[in-house]
Write a structure and sequence with these properties.
Layout lengths: L9 H4 L3 H21 L9 H4 L36 E12 L4 E11 L8 E7 H14 L23 H20 L7 H8 L2 H8 L5 H17 L6 H49 L6 H21 L1 H44 L5 H78 L1
Antiparallel strand pairs: 1-2, 2-3
Length: about 450
Protein backbone atom coordinates (compact mmCIF):
# COMPACT_ATOMS: atom_id res chain seq x y z
CA UNK A 1 0.00 0.00 0.00
CA UNK A 2 1.27 3.40 -0.94
CA UNK A 3 1.55 5.72 2.06
CA UNK A 4 0.72 8.66 -0.17
CA UNK A 5 -2.88 7.50 -0.12
CA UNK A 6 -3.12 9.00 3.36
CA UNK A 7 -2.89 12.52 2.00
CA UNK A 8 -6.08 14.28 0.85
CA UNK A 9 -6.69 14.38 -2.87
CA UNK A 10 -6.65 17.72 -4.75
CA UNK A 11 -10.34 17.28 -5.51
CA UNK A 12 -11.19 17.11 -1.81
CA UNK A 13 -9.21 20.16 -0.82
CA UNK A 14 -10.93 22.32 -3.42
CA UNK A 15 -14.48 21.73 -2.27
CA UNK A 16 -16.74 24.53 -1.02
CA UNK A 17 -14.65 27.57 -2.08
CA UNK A 18 -17.32 30.00 -0.88
CA UNK A 19 -17.26 28.54 2.63
CA UNK A 20 -13.46 28.74 2.69
CA UNK A 21 -13.49 32.40 1.63
CA UNK A 22 -16.06 33.17 4.31
CA UNK A 23 -13.96 31.47 7.02
CA UNK A 24 -10.87 33.34 5.83
CA UNK A 25 -12.83 36.57 6.19
CA UNK A 26 -13.83 35.58 9.73
CA UNK A 27 -10.21 34.95 10.70
CA UNK A 28 -9.21 38.33 9.24
CA UNK A 29 -12.03 40.01 11.18
CA UNK A 30 -10.88 38.28 14.38
CA UNK A 31 -7.27 39.38 13.95
CA UNK A 32 -8.43 42.94 13.24
CA UNK A 33 -10.66 42.88 16.32
CA UNK A 34 -7.78 41.68 18.50
CA UNK A 35 -5.62 44.54 17.23
CA UNK A 36 -8.35 47.09 17.94
CA UNK A 37 -9.08 45.83 21.45
CA UNK A 38 -5.50 45.26 22.57
CA UNK A 39 -3.00 48.07 22.10
CA UNK A 40 -0.01 46.73 24.04
CA UNK A 41 3.08 48.58 25.13
CA UNK A 42 6.48 47.00 24.55
CA UNK A 43 7.00 44.32 27.13
CA UNK A 44 9.04 41.14 27.20
CA UNK A 45 5.92 39.24 28.21
CA UNK A 46 4.42 40.09 24.83
CA UNK A 47 7.37 38.86 22.80
CA UNK A 48 5.26 36.12 21.29
CA UNK A 49 3.22 38.72 19.40
CA UNK A 50 6.29 40.14 17.71
CA UNK A 51 7.33 36.90 15.97
CA UNK A 52 5.00 35.63 13.23
CA UNK A 53 2.10 37.00 15.19
CA UNK A 54 -0.68 36.13 12.75
CA UNK A 55 -2.65 32.92 13.17
CA UNK A 56 -2.20 30.25 10.53
CA UNK A 57 -5.39 30.27 8.52
CA UNK A 58 -7.32 27.42 10.13
CA UNK A 59 -9.94 27.57 7.40
CA UNK A 60 -7.44 26.24 4.87
CA UNK A 61 -7.92 22.69 6.14
CA UNK A 62 -10.13 20.48 4.02
CA UNK A 63 -13.21 19.17 5.77
CA UNK A 64 -14.40 16.89 2.99
CA UNK A 65 -14.91 13.25 3.95
CA UNK A 66 -13.47 10.31 1.99
CA UNK A 67 -16.16 8.01 0.66
CA UNK A 68 -14.49 4.61 0.92
CA UNK A 69 -17.26 1.99 1.25
CA UNK A 70 -15.17 -0.01 3.71
CA UNK A 71 -14.62 2.88 6.12
CA UNK A 72 -16.42 3.65 9.38
CA UNK A 73 -17.01 7.30 8.50
CA UNK A 74 -20.76 7.03 8.71
CA UNK A 75 -20.32 6.56 12.47
CA UNK A 76 -19.63 10.29 12.71
CA UNK A 77 -22.27 12.63 11.36
CA UNK A 78 -20.84 16.10 11.88
CA UNK A 79 -22.56 17.70 8.92
CA UNK A 80 -26.00 16.93 10.33
CA UNK A 81 -26.45 19.43 13.13
CA UNK A 82 -29.44 19.07 15.42
CA UNK A 83 -32.50 20.86 14.06
CA UNK A 84 -33.42 22.18 17.49
CA UNK A 85 -32.10 21.93 21.02
CA UNK A 86 -33.80 18.98 22.66
CA UNK A 87 -31.75 18.77 25.85
CA UNK A 88 -31.14 21.46 28.48
CA UNK A 89 -28.60 21.04 31.29
CA UNK A 90 -27.88 23.27 34.27
CA UNK A 91 -25.22 22.90 36.94
CA UNK A 92 -25.95 24.71 40.20
CA UNK A 93 -26.41 24.41 43.99
CA UNK A 94 -22.87 23.47 45.07
CA UNK A 95 -22.91 21.55 48.34
CA UNK A 96 -20.02 20.77 50.66
CA UNK A 97 -19.56 17.24 52.05
CA UNK A 98 -17.26 16.43 54.94
CA UNK A 99 -16.30 12.86 55.78
CA UNK A 100 -13.64 11.33 58.00
CA UNK A 101 -11.48 10.83 54.91
CA UNK A 102 -12.07 13.87 52.70
CA UNK A 103 -13.95 17.06 52.03
CA UNK A 104 -15.50 17.59 48.62
CA UNK A 105 -18.13 19.55 46.73
CA UNK A 106 -21.06 18.11 44.79
CA UNK A 107 -23.10 19.99 42.20
CA UNK A 108 -26.74 19.55 41.29
CA UNK A 109 -27.23 18.67 37.62
CA UNK A 110 -30.71 19.20 36.20
CA UNK A 111 -31.47 17.76 32.78
CA UNK A 112 -34.63 18.47 30.79
CA UNK A 113 -35.09 16.67 27.49
CA UNK A 114 -37.61 15.56 24.89
CA UNK A 115 -35.44 12.76 23.50
CA UNK A 116 -37.10 9.38 23.18
CA UNK A 117 -33.90 7.67 24.38
CA UNK A 118 -34.59 9.01 27.87
CA UNK A 119 -37.24 7.37 30.05
CA UNK A 120 -38.28 10.66 31.66
CA UNK A 121 -38.35 14.31 30.65
CA UNK A 122 -36.43 15.60 33.68
CA UNK A 123 -33.61 14.27 35.86
CA UNK A 124 -31.91 15.73 38.92
CA UNK A 125 -28.66 14.17 40.17
CA UNK A 126 -25.63 15.27 42.17
CA UNK A 127 -22.09 14.83 40.91
CA UNK A 128 -18.62 15.61 42.22
CA UNK A 129 -15.57 16.64 40.24
CA UNK A 130 -14.24 13.06 40.03
CA UNK A 131 -17.43 12.06 38.21
CA UNK A 132 -16.79 14.72 35.57
CA UNK A 133 -13.24 13.39 35.15
CA UNK A 134 -14.63 9.89 34.65
CA UNK A 135 -17.07 11.13 31.99
CA UNK A 136 -14.39 12.95 30.04
CA UNK A 137 -12.13 9.92 30.21
CA UNK A 138 -14.88 7.69 28.81
CA UNK A 139 -15.59 10.11 25.97
CA UNK A 140 -11.89 10.34 25.11
CA UNK A 141 -11.66 6.55 25.17
CA UNK A 142 -14.68 6.16 22.87
CA UNK A 143 -13.75 9.00 20.48
CA UNK A 144 -9.95 9.40 20.55
CA UNK A 145 -9.83 11.82 17.60
CA UNK A 146 -12.81 13.97 18.50
CA UNK A 147 -12.35 17.28 20.30
CA UNK A 148 -13.64 16.67 23.83
CA UNK A 149 -14.24 19.92 25.80
CA UNK A 150 -11.69 20.54 28.57
CA UNK A 151 -12.43 20.43 32.29
CA UNK A 152 -11.15 23.02 34.77
CA UNK A 153 -7.93 21.98 36.51
CA UNK A 154 -8.24 19.60 39.43
CA UNK A 155 -5.86 21.55 41.63
CA UNK A 156 -6.36 25.07 42.92
CA UNK A 157 -5.17 27.92 40.75
CA UNK A 158 -2.17 30.05 41.64
CA UNK A 159 -3.04 32.66 44.22
CA UNK A 160 -6.17 30.83 45.40
CA UNK A 161 -5.73 30.55 49.17
CA UNK A 162 -8.79 28.50 50.04
CA UNK A 163 -9.83 25.66 47.73
CA UNK A 164 -13.46 25.79 48.80
CA UNK A 165 -14.06 29.51 49.00
CA UNK A 166 -17.09 30.94 47.21
CA UNK A 167 -15.17 32.44 44.30
CA UNK A 168 -13.39 29.18 43.49
CA UNK A 169 -16.58 27.12 43.76
CA UNK A 170 -18.53 29.50 41.52
CA UNK A 171 -15.72 29.56 38.92
CA UNK A 172 -15.65 25.78 38.86
CA UNK A 173 -19.46 25.52 38.70
CA UNK A 174 -19.51 27.77 35.64
CA UNK A 175 -16.76 25.72 33.97
CA UNK A 176 -18.57 22.43 34.67
CA UNK A 177 -21.79 23.94 33.32
CA UNK A 178 -20.04 24.91 30.08
CA UNK A 179 -18.41 21.48 29.86
CA UNK A 180 -21.71 19.58 29.95
CA UNK A 181 -23.47 21.95 27.59
CA UNK A 182 -20.67 21.78 25.03
CA UNK A 183 -21.03 17.99 25.09
CA UNK A 184 -24.81 18.31 24.77
CA UNK A 185 -24.35 20.59 21.74
CA UNK A 186 -21.93 18.21 20.02
CA UNK A 187 -23.61 16.18 17.24
CA UNK A 188 -21.87 12.94 18.25
CA UNK A 189 -20.90 13.21 21.93
CA UNK A 190 -24.43 14.16 22.95
CA UNK A 191 -25.69 10.65 22.11
CA UNK A 192 -22.98 8.80 24.02
CA UNK A 193 -24.36 6.20 26.46
CA UNK A 194 -21.94 7.14 29.27
CA UNK A 195 -23.08 10.77 28.96
CA UNK A 196 -26.69 9.62 29.35
CA UNK A 197 -25.79 7.55 32.42
CA UNK A 198 -23.92 10.51 33.90
CA UNK A 199 -27.02 12.71 33.55
CA UNK A 200 -29.61 10.20 34.76
CA UNK A 201 -28.15 7.58 37.10
CA UNK A 202 -28.35 7.83 40.86
CA UNK A 203 -25.05 7.82 42.76
CA UNK A 204 -25.03 4.07 43.47
CA UNK A 205 -25.99 3.29 39.87
CA UNK A 206 -23.16 5.45 38.54
CA UNK A 207 -20.69 3.70 40.86
CA UNK A 208 -21.82 0.31 39.55
CA UNK A 209 -21.59 1.53 35.96
CA UNK A 210 -18.04 2.77 36.46
CA UNK A 211 -16.92 -0.72 37.51
CA UNK A 212 -17.92 -2.07 34.08
CA UNK A 213 -15.02 -0.25 32.39
CA UNK A 214 -11.74 -1.85 31.21
CA UNK A 215 -9.39 -3.19 33.84
CA UNK A 216 -6.04 -1.78 34.90
CA UNK A 217 -4.06 -4.22 32.73
CA UNK A 218 -6.04 -3.19 29.66
CA UNK A 219 -5.38 0.49 30.33
CA UNK A 220 -1.69 -0.21 30.89
CA UNK A 221 -1.55 -2.04 27.56
CA UNK A 222 -3.05 0.96 25.78
CA UNK A 223 -0.50 3.23 27.47
CA UNK A 224 2.40 1.00 26.39
CA UNK A 225 1.16 0.94 22.78
CA UNK A 226 0.73 4.71 22.85
CA UNK A 227 4.29 5.23 24.10
CA UNK A 228 5.64 2.83 21.46
CA UNK A 229 3.85 4.76 18.72
CA UNK A 230 5.29 8.04 19.99
CA UNK A 231 8.79 6.58 19.95
CA UNK A 232 8.32 5.27 16.39
CA UNK A 233 6.92 8.55 15.16
CA UNK A 234 5.00 9.19 11.94
CA UNK A 235 6.80 9.08 8.61
CA UNK A 236 4.20 10.55 6.28
CA UNK A 237 1.84 12.74 8.26
CA UNK A 238 -0.56 14.59 5.92
CA UNK A 239 0.42 18.24 5.55
CA UNK A 240 -2.95 19.47 6.77
CA UNK A 241 -2.38 17.94 10.21
CA UNK A 242 1.08 19.46 10.40
CA UNK A 243 -0.47 22.86 9.63
CA UNK A 244 -3.14 22.16 12.22
CA UNK A 245 -0.48 21.53 14.88
CA UNK A 246 1.35 24.74 13.95
CA UNK A 247 -1.90 26.69 14.22
CA UNK A 248 -2.62 25.19 17.64
CA UNK A 249 0.88 26.08 18.88
CA UNK A 250 0.43 29.73 17.85
CA UNK A 251 -3.16 29.86 19.07
CA UNK A 252 -2.19 28.43 22.47
CA UNK A 253 0.59 30.99 22.92
CA UNK A 254 -1.63 33.95 22.11
CA UNK A 255 -4.67 32.87 24.10
CA UNK A 256 -2.48 31.89 27.05
CA UNK A 257 -0.85 35.31 26.97
CA UNK A 258 -4.23 37.07 26.83
CA UNK A 259 -5.36 34.92 29.76
CA UNK A 260 -2.36 35.95 31.90
CA UNK A 261 -2.70 39.65 31.01
CA UNK A 262 -6.44 39.61 31.71
CA UNK A 263 -5.76 38.05 35.11
CA UNK A 264 -3.35 40.89 35.92
CA UNK A 265 -5.83 43.52 34.72
CA UNK A 266 -8.55 42.01 36.91
CA UNK A 267 -6.25 42.08 39.94
CA UNK A 268 -5.37 45.70 39.23
CA UNK A 269 -9.06 46.58 38.93
CA UNK A 270 -9.77 44.98 42.31
CA UNK A 271 -6.87 46.88 43.90
CA UNK A 272 -8.07 50.09 42.24
CA UNK A 273 -11.58 49.56 43.63
CA UNK A 274 -10.21 49.13 47.15
CA UNK A 275 -8.27 52.38 46.85
CA UNK A 276 -11.27 54.17 45.37
CA UNK A 277 -13.50 53.13 48.26
CA UNK A 278 -10.97 54.58 50.69
CA UNK A 279 -10.70 57.76 48.62
CA UNK A 280 -14.29 58.99 48.94
CA UNK A 281 -14.49 59.16 52.80
CA UNK A 282 -11.45 61.44 52.84
CA UNK A 283 -13.38 64.12 50.92
CA UNK A 284 -16.42 63.61 53.15
CA UNK A 285 -14.35 64.11 56.31
CA UNK A 286 -12.64 67.13 54.80
CA UNK A 287 -16.01 68.77 54.03
CA UNK A 288 -16.78 68.87 57.75
CA UNK A 289 -14.02 71.39 58.37
CA UNK A 290 -14.44 73.54 55.26
CA UNK A 291 -17.72 75.49 55.22
CA UNK A 292 -17.12 77.23 51.90
CA UNK A 293 -15.91 74.05 50.17
CA UNK A 294 -18.41 71.75 51.81
CA UNK A 295 -20.71 71.32 48.80
CA UNK A 296 -17.83 70.89 46.37
CA UNK A 297 -16.09 68.30 48.55
CA UNK A 298 -19.29 66.36 49.09
CA UNK A 299 -19.88 66.50 45.34
CA UNK A 300 -16.46 64.97 44.66
CA UNK A 301 -17.13 62.25 47.25
CA UNK A 302 -20.47 61.49 45.60
CA UNK A 303 -18.84 61.24 42.15
CA UNK A 304 -16.21 58.82 43.47
CA UNK A 305 -18.92 56.68 45.07
CA UNK A 306 -20.76 56.49 41.75
CA UNK A 307 -17.54 55.56 39.96
CA UNK A 308 -17.00 52.79 42.51
CA UNK A 309 -20.33 51.30 41.53
CA UNK A 310 -19.36 51.55 37.86
CA UNK A 311 -16.13 49.64 38.53
CA UNK A 312 -18.08 46.98 40.43
CA UNK A 313 -20.42 46.61 37.46
CA UNK A 314 -17.53 46.41 35.00
CA UNK A 315 -15.35 43.80 36.76
CA UNK A 316 -17.68 40.80 36.23
CA UNK A 317 -17.23 41.29 32.50
CA UNK A 318 -13.66 40.08 32.99
CA UNK A 319 -14.01 37.64 35.88
CA UNK A 320 -17.19 35.90 34.71
CA UNK A 321 -16.97 36.11 30.92
CA UNK A 322 -13.68 36.92 29.23
CA UNK A 323 -11.17 35.29 31.60
CA UNK A 324 -13.02 31.94 31.93
CA UNK A 325 -13.34 31.80 28.14
CA UNK A 326 -9.66 32.58 27.53
CA UNK A 327 -8.63 30.03 30.15
CA UNK A 328 -10.89 27.38 28.64
CA UNK A 329 -9.35 27.86 25.21
CA UNK A 330 -5.88 27.80 26.73
CA UNK A 331 -6.74 24.33 28.02
CA UNK A 332 -8.26 23.52 24.63
CA UNK A 333 -4.91 24.13 22.94
CA UNK A 334 -3.22 21.48 25.10
CA UNK A 335 -6.14 19.11 24.61
CA UNK A 336 -5.96 19.53 20.81
CA UNK A 337 -2.27 18.59 20.85
CA UNK A 338 -3.22 15.39 22.65
CA UNK A 339 -5.88 14.64 20.01
CA UNK A 340 -3.30 15.04 17.23
CA UNK A 341 -0.93 12.71 19.10
CA UNK A 342 -3.64 10.06 19.22
CA UNK A 343 -4.24 10.47 15.49
CA UNK A 344 -0.50 10.08 14.91
CA UNK A 345 -0.55 6.93 17.06
CA UNK A 346 -3.14 5.36 14.74
CA UNK A 347 -1.06 6.25 11.68
CA UNK A 348 2.12 4.95 13.32
CA UNK A 349 0.40 1.60 14.00
CA UNK A 350 -0.70 1.43 10.36
CA UNK A 351 2.75 2.29 9.00
CA UNK A 352 4.36 -0.28 11.30
CA UNK A 353 2.10 -3.06 10.01
CA UNK A 354 2.76 -2.05 6.39
CA UNK A 355 6.50 -2.23 7.01
CA UNK A 356 6.12 -5.64 8.61
CA UNK A 357 4.22 -6.93 5.60
CA UNK A 358 6.73 -5.51 3.12
CA UNK A 359 9.63 -7.13 4.98
CA UNK A 360 8.12 -10.61 4.59
CA UNK A 361 8.79 -12.65 1.45
CA UNK A 362 5.30 -14.15 1.36
CA UNK A 363 2.06 -12.33 2.04
CA UNK A 364 0.52 -12.98 5.43
CA UNK A 365 -3.28 -13.06 5.15
CA UNK A 366 -3.88 -12.17 8.81
CA UNK A 367 -1.47 -9.26 8.60
CA UNK A 368 -3.09 -8.05 5.39
CA UNK A 369 -6.52 -8.15 7.01
CA UNK A 370 -5.21 -6.26 10.04
CA UNK A 371 -3.68 -3.61 7.77
CA UNK A 372 -7.02 -3.19 6.02
CA UNK A 373 -8.74 -2.57 9.35
CA UNK A 374 -6.06 -0.11 10.41
CA UNK A 375 -6.39 1.71 7.10
CA UNK A 376 -10.14 2.08 7.71
CA UNK A 377 -9.47 3.23 11.27
CA UNK A 378 -6.96 5.82 10.11
CA UNK A 379 -9.26 7.07 7.38
CA UNK A 380 -12.09 7.41 9.90
CA UNK A 381 -9.81 9.16 12.42
CA UNK A 382 -8.60 11.67 9.82
CA UNK A 383 -12.10 12.43 8.60
CA UNK A 384 -13.55 12.70 12.10
CA UNK A 385 -10.82 15.07 13.27
CA UNK A 386 -11.07 17.29 10.19
CA UNK A 387 -14.84 17.58 10.52
CA UNK A 388 -14.70 18.23 14.26
CA UNK A 389 -11.85 20.71 13.75
CA UNK A 390 -14.03 22.78 11.44
CA UNK A 391 -16.86 22.75 13.97
CA UNK A 392 -14.50 23.67 16.85
CA UNK A 393 -13.01 26.53 14.84
CA UNK A 394 -16.42 27.94 14.03
CA UNK A 395 -17.50 27.82 17.68
CA UNK A 396 -14.18 29.26 18.88
CA UNK A 397 -14.42 32.27 16.57
CA UNK A 398 -17.99 32.96 17.62
CA UNK A 399 -17.08 32.65 21.33
CA UNK A 400 -14.05 34.94 21.08
CA UNK A 401 -15.83 37.57 18.98
CA UNK A 402 -18.80 37.60 21.36
CA UNK A 403 -16.49 37.94 24.37
CA UNK A 404 -14.54 40.81 22.80
CA UNK A 405 -17.72 42.64 21.80
CA UNK A 406 -19.15 42.21 25.29
CA UNK A 407 -15.91 43.51 26.80
CA UNK A 408 -16.06 46.53 24.48
CA UNK A 409 -19.69 47.22 25.45
CA UNK A 410 -18.82 46.95 29.16
CA UNK A 411 -15.96 49.43 28.75
CA UNK A 412 -18.10 51.87 26.77
CA UNK A 413 -20.85 51.74 29.40
CA UNK A 414 -18.33 52.18 32.21
CA UNK A 415 -16.64 55.24 30.71
CA UNK A 416 -19.94 56.80 29.64
CA UNK A 417 -21.33 56.55 33.18
CA UNK A 418 -18.16 57.93 34.74
CA UNK A 419 -18.04 60.73 32.17
CA UNK A 420 -21.69 61.64 32.79
CA UNK A 421 -21.06 61.69 36.55
CA UNK A 422 -18.12 64.08 36.36
CA UNK A 423 -19.72 66.25 33.66
CA UNK A 424 -22.76 66.70 35.89
CA UNK A 425 -20.49 67.72 38.77
CA UNK A 426 -18.54 70.19 36.61
CA UNK A 427 -21.76 71.74 35.29
CA UNK A 428 -23.16 72.21 38.80
CA UNK A 429 -19.92 73.79 40.00
CA UNK A 430 -19.84 76.20 37.06
CA UNK A 431 -23.45 77.21 37.70
CA UNK A 432 -22.65 77.90 41.33
CA UNK A 433 -19.71 80.07 40.31
CA UNK A 434 -21.93 82.06 37.93
CA UNK A 435 -24.51 82.63 40.66
CA UNK A 436 -21.81 83.69 43.13
CA UNK A 437 -20.27 86.11 40.61
CA UNK A 438 -23.65 87.63 39.83
CA UNK A 439 -24.34 88.04 43.53
CA UNK A 440 -21.00 89.79 44.06
CA UNK A 441 -21.57 92.11 41.11
CA UNK A 442 -25.03 92.99 42.38
CA UNK A 443 -23.74 93.84 45.82
Amino acid sequence: MDSTSLSPSPANTSECPSATQQQQGEVSDLNALVKEVLEFDEDEDLEVFSKDATFTDASSFSTSLPTSPSSMINHYKFEEELDATDIFITVDDPESHVTTIETFITYRITTKTTRSAFDASEYVVRRRYQDFLWLRGKLEEAYPTLIIPPLPEKFIMKGMVERFNEEFIETRRNALHRFLNRIADHPTLTFNEDFKVFLTAQAWELTAHKKQGPGLLSKMGETVRSMAAIVRGVKNRPEEFTEMLEYIETFGQKVGLLDRISQRILKEQKDYLVELKEYSPVYTLWSGSEDELMDSLKGVASCIDKCCKCVEEKSPGLSENLIPLLHEYTLCAEMLKAVLKRRDQIQADYESKVESLNSKKTENEMLTEEIGKLEDKLECANSALKADWERWNRNMKNDVKSAFLEMADKNITYYEKCLATWESFVTSQKNELIVENEHEDGS
